[in-house]
Design a protein that fits this description.
The complex is a heterodimer of chains A (315) and B (190). Chain A is of the alpha/beta class and 315 residues long. Chain A is built from ten helices and nine strands. In chain A, the strands form two sheets. Chain A has a five-stranded parallel β-sheet with strand order 3-2-1-4-5, with helices on both faces. In chain A, strands 6, 7, 8 and 9 form a four-stranded mixed β-sheet that branches. In chain A, helix 1 packs across helix 2. Chain B has a nine-stranded mixed β-sheet with strand order 2-1-3-4-9-8-7-5-6, with helices on one face. Chain B is built from four helices and nine strands. The chains are: A alpha/beta (315), B alpha/beta (190). The interface between A and B is medium-sized, with 24 and 28 residues.
Chain lengths: 315, 190
């Protein structure tokens, strides 16, 4: 026996229909989990559902445009909020990774509550999956990191939670998404707090730009190598901006620039992971492009740790 | 077949549930302070791993001791569940000289139903600070890794098994075969 996405979809659509008799909003980042949950909920509730996507300013290159297209194609009733300034203002001066996660989570839920009130919703649907609540901890379980959709919710929240994917892992969610015809079914995971947890140290618009540009290069080169059958496309692959400056030489001039770490891992469920054995010539292309195209970066390193003992994201 | 997973707060408790579910078992996660009377008509128990030090901090292990003493079917202790089983039955679990995280190589040195059909060396995934340093009376060690002598143990008469590594995670080789073998023991003892 394994997982049966069709049976799961039928079961959960029915469950949502029973639970939500009024209106609901869904927090949708455009990733596999929340998009699959949005389509499930939309099947159950149609226009009694509003999907809310927040452009936090912490998204990847062209992500907002892409999410809008996805939700349009899937005919999910949705709203795009642009709140980058608010998020950057709240994150000013913050370097602690857990504080970042809590602040971002707090902003999200504040926006969702506001949208829910306007829309007249009394339920909040979320694409929470098993690793989110497992890693958020509680009672005996240690908190590895705060997933804001779980540990970032205020205790006095009025909205009632609906989490159809709670017991699933990413591989199972992908099966659900595929069955639902979701274009982003194979998309790599992206953390809820976005690029904020890939900028080690303070999160400023400039530093987010650096990691965004570097990440786009990592994604592009690894996907190209995947297409050329040079390497199987890893489970997740991205850039991290380190708070480390080092010396470099650019055209006979000393520079003192920033460092990018490249992370690529293979996993099935996100609960254990091994670093991907990316061929050296692919790493070489990534390093050359990042140091040449992203102004301010003069050094690139490759992360070779597994989970455990590391986690996939750095924060 | 019904198997309960006793939740000692591990990161991979829910993975144990998933592996059992995929093997067609009626599986359920229960808190570790559930009274033993809740375990009627259950064919086997898995005692999950837990947050650091939980295996040697009996306060956090709820009623695991009651289950080990009173549950009649097979029990598989994993990580903290394994360490607690050892200390509860008169062995010793203590901080490991070399904690293991991530990949390790298991060497099976005593054939057992749990490892039936498997090679005697394979890759397993670890995540522990503590380990079993002295086996409880009546137990035999079945397998080791370069940095840990008791990676697997079992009682000679009762169907009690302990594993230090994590058969429930994707990166452990033959993990679901180990669960399948445990289920065979559950089947035969009902």
């Amino acid at each position: 026996m394994s997982f049966d996405p069709k049976a799961f979809i039928a079961e959960q659509t029915e469950a949502i229909r029973k639970t939500v008799t009024g209106k609901a909003i869904i927090a949708c980042s455009g990733g596999v989990d929340s998009t699959a949950a949005a389509v499930l909920a939309s099947r159950a509730l149609s226009d009694r559902l509003l999907a809310v996507y927040v452009d936090t300013g912490l998204m990847r290159k062209d992500e907002t445009k892409d999410v809008e297209r996805t939700l349009d194609e899937l005919h999910v009733n949705h709203r795009i909020l642009r709140a980058a300034n608010e998020f950057f203002a709240a994150l000013k001066g913050i370097t602690d990774p857990e504080k970042k996660r809590m602040i971002i989570g707090g902003k999200f839920i504040w926006l969702f509550e506001r949208e829910a009130e306007t829309f007249g919703a009394d339920h909040l649907v979320q694409g929470t999956i098993a690793p989110d609540w497992i890693e958020s901890g509680g009672q005996l379980r240690d908190r590895i990191k705060t997933h804001h959709n779980v540990a970032g919710l205020p205790p006095d929240m009025k909205l009632k939670l609906v989490e159809p994917l709670r017991d699933l892992y990413k591989d199972e969610v992908r099966a659900v998404a595929r069955t639902l015809g979701v274009r982003v079914a194979e998309r790599q995971p992206f953390p809820g707090p976005g690029l904020a947890v890939r900028v080690i140290g303070e999160v400023t618009p400039d530093r987010v730009d650096l990691v965004r540009e570097a990440s786009a290069i990592v994604e592009h080169e690894i996907e190209a190598a995947g297409k050329a059958k040079q390497v199987p496309v890893p489970w997740q692959y991205f850039a991290v901006l380190l708070p480390v400056q080092t010396v470099g030489v650019h055209g006979d001039l000393r520079v003192y620039g920033h460092t990018i770490a490249v992370r690529a891992v293979d996993s099935i469920d996100g609960m254990t992971a091994v670093y991907s054995k990316i061929p050296h010539d692919v790493l070489d292309r990534i390093a050359t492009r990042i140091t040449n195209e992203v102004a301010g970066i003069n050094r690139v390193v490759f992360d070779i740790s597994s989970k455990p003992p590391a986690t996939i994201e750095w924060e | 077949m019904r198997v309960y997973v006793v939740d000692n707060g591990g990161q991979w408790t829910h993975r144990e549930w998933r592996v059992l579910k995929y093997l067609g078992v009626d599986a359920k996660i229960v808190p570790n302070d559930s009274p033993i009377s809740d375990l009627k008509e259950v064919d086997g128990l898995v005692l999950s791993g837990g947050a650091p030090r939980v295996g040697i901090d009996p306060e956090k292990m709820g009623k695991n001791g009651d289950y080990i003493d009173g549950f009649e079917g097979p029990i598989l202790g994993i990580c903290a569940g394994h360490q607690f089983m050892a200390s509860h039955l008169g062995g010793v679990a203590a901080p490991a000289k070399v904690p293991e995280f991530g990949k390790s190589i298991l060497k099976v040195h005593q054939p057992d139903v749990l490892f039936e059909g498997l090679p005697d060396r394979f890759e397993v995934w670890e995540s522990h600070n503590d380990e079993v340093t002295v086996l409880p009376p009546g137990f035999a060690s079945l397998a080791s890794s370069p940095n840990c002598n008791v990676q697997a143990m079992r009682h000679q008469d009762r169907p009690l098994f302990g594993l230090q590594f994590h058969p429930e995670v994707e990166h452990t080789q033959f993990g679901s075969d180990i669960f399948r073998n445990f289920l065979k023991v559950c089947e035969n003892s009902t």
